[in-house]
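Allow me, if you will, to draw on your knowledge of protein folds for a short while. I am sending you one protein, given as its amino acid sequence and as whole-number tokens for its backbone shapes. Kindly check, if you would, that the fold set down in the tokens agrees with what the sequence suggests. The record follows directly beneath this note:
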Amino acid sequence: MSKAAWLAYNTYRKGISYRSQLSKTAALLNAPRADILAFQNEQLEKLLRHAYHTTPYYRELFKTESPDISQIPTLEKSNIREQLERLCSEAFPQEERIKNATGGSTGAPLTFYQDRNYWNQRNLSVYCFDRWAGWDFGEPQLIIWGALADLEGDEHWKYQLNNFWRNHYWLNGFHLTDATMRTAFRQMDKSHPQTILAYPSSLYQFAAYLFENSLVPKWDLKGIITSAEMLHSHYRSFAESVFGTKIYNRYGGREVGLIAMECIAGHMHINCRDLYLEIDSPDPYTQPGDILITQLNNYAMPFIRYRIGDIGRLSDETCPCGNQLPILAELLGRSTATFRTKTDTLIHAGYFTQQFYNVIGVDQFQLIQESLKHCVLKVVINTQWTETARRYMVQKIQGALGADVIVTVKLVEEIPLPASGKREFTISKVF
């Protein structure tokens, strides 16, 4: 019933068979590489022409309607804050723009605009990619999430009705307590979810609660989808062990939608249907660099060569899963969470989480790189904390960043969540 209602609702709202749209989307995402890239190039040319003719910012920047994209200056967050109205298309009046904003996990929230077609196309791609993890319309799903914009009005009857007909059970990832996690576990024992969609850190916390309380899920999950945060290796291995299924990591951003999704073979495939991805690096296949995104569907406010704030590397290998979408070989996380040494070597923040997550005596930690010569390590300790643990953590930091780096260890009562609700284990202020 839920699946039929979902398809009927979307067909009514869009005035076209939603099942047909899904089939076309899936066909493109599974097409030969040449067909995928031909479609992507066609969409890119259309977007550039539209941006030149209808947006003051790009009209001044391009000088021609068909510029070489590699020669277009990158779009920085500062450009969006300073030039917001000039970046908006004159073809879209104010009432046709959909206002959105980032969660502000790396600073002040970023405000921008999107259009209805962007959201329609984004959802189609998300639905198709999520099927890689076993999800399908109407099947029961546990969602452990917490984006503030997604939770507004959660007591309203429309919210409750929406969850009912979509067959979703929502566990607030911002406020996980023993009581809410036990209630969710009991509810899932009745509902038997087919998939879980979660923040990696919230999934890990839920899995730890179940493990520590000897609560064994018997839900026969098809897969788990994680998104919105870095999926650290210890998160993955522990959660897969507790829930007895594979995690499919999804990479995206509120500004540009779904960027890439992990397949059954463990490779992250780039969503060429909706965007054009570049790596700002002399050799994107061997040397990681900033990820640049051109969103192909948002005509209300084009994002062209947008520096999203993450670091990655491409791969030219063929995936054994059979899908021919290009592969994002490495996703090193936020540029603000990737540490830099005096020799200009980049250290993946995941290195520190792997070293510190099981240190005896440590309940929480946060490592902040203030400069190339100084780091601050905030630690929430318990009764098992020792000077040996302190020395171990300092040695690991200096071993990665340099023996002469000064590490200031601060014992704190708590490490508050930022406004975004996403836990930050590592922060680098070195750019």
Remarks:
- The two ends are 52 Å apart (CA to CA).
- The longest strand covers residues 306-315.
- The domain at 2-336 is CATH 3.40.50.12780 (Rossmann fold).
- Confidence is low (pLDDT under 50) at residues 147-151.
